[in-house]
Amino acid sequence: RKELVSRRCTTTTERDFVIGEIKELREHLAGMRPGLDTLLKATAPMQTALQSSFAERRQTLETARHLPGPLYMLFAQLHTHNEMKQDGGDGGSAAPPAFSLVLSIGGDCEAGRKLTTATIIERRAKFLRRESDSDREAGEEDESQHAQHRKSKRRRTVTNEGQRHTMVLLPHPMTVNATVTEKGCGSVEMVFKYLPMLDVVVVQATATWQAPTVSSCSSFLTASGVLNNLVEEDDGTAIDSTVADEVMKQQHMEKFEQYVGESGLAYRWVQRLSGYQSLDPSVESPKQLDEVIKALRGRIDSRFALLQQLTALEQCEIPIRGNSSAFFPTRLSNKMVSFTAVREPLTLSWVCLSPKAQLVRKTDLCYVAQLERKTGDRAQLHAAVFISQEYPRVSPLF
Question: pTM of this prediction?
């Protein structure tokens, strides 16, 4: 006991010393702020002439302080990655970069300033405790009530359940917006949101392409088609969180995939970038971020190339690029008659796929090509082509 008392006194002394140092540093920083503000105002014309956005970046970082913890972790990593690429990117080259990442903070900053981490945890605990008490009272209700009253009660219960589900999926008022643009191909605009009740980060995205889209491959060109299975087998419809599972179970909610249209997709790489390292402690966030950016750039490039190829093939034209012309014969004895999309490939009598082999998934695109010989008996060849979401990493199946 004496040893514990001695440790307590030592720890208390160290704590008081650290608190005093922090207080002195804060006072010192607070005293520097007026001078910095005066300096920024005095150098505003120079910043404008040099096209420097220092004041704007400072305001953005000041706003980021009011983000919830997971979104702040995500923003900090993306911001640091962006600054490093801009500072050491092209070595003074005048050519515009082929890739750009634009970051911003959206939503209601005033409301986010009031909603601190402690407030979020307290609200979540109160909400769960209140709903648990209301469920217990509903279970103890007298069964001898009138039928009409039971119907009215049932209608009120359904309404209350809808309101509770809305409360569970209610996002934080502030968001992190990131737009990834690949020059000459397209861009993906992502809005990251934090769901306080589920303690999870979700993303809602839109994709824009610099070419007319083909309706047959529209599922591949949507934002979810670009982000699905980006760095691993993950479509964002499942949550690996004990807190979220417990909350949804208590609120009698279905699986999270039933609500992704309303809330957004909860990819595992988004959770890792937001600081949830419990999913895979061996993965370091900076490496994960570089991997995600690299995979996203490659996915945008490959989707745009696939769009161009399918557009040409549907017009019965075989796209041949300069270096690949050597792989084709100088004289062709057949021609492509048609190249059309098929929604139900298993209905084709001449296509045989083993379910156990799992060579084709529901998300794969299927096309049927018809080739005809120009001379002789004009024999025809029908071929089915299955294109995976991981194309070109996964080769098409013929």
Answer: 0.74
